[in-house]
Design brief:
alpha/beta, four-stranded parallel sheet, about 40% helix, globular
Amino acid sequence: KVPLFNYATIAELKAGLPFDCMLVGVELDPTSTPIEEFNHPPRGVYLLGAEDHGLSPEERAACHRLVQLPGDRSMNVAAAGTVAMYARHLDARARRLTFQKASAAE
């Protein structure tokens, strides 16, 4: 079972994060890092906004980092979440493989 938590405000959500957990906003924003270039944190909560207007200014400000998916248009939130989690998976896999190669050479 996946745990489910409900928060009334973004401040409550941020206060409920574990100590070393990063809040990552997925948003079309000029300050966002392209997801292909983002080093995903070991522990992260990914915040996706509504399909029609994205994250609110308050939500964007609360995020530790913002990432942008490929393209310049909003996509279905379920598809956006899938793309973000797949990018996270690829990033973790690449770093693990790099680490294994480095330790095997020793």
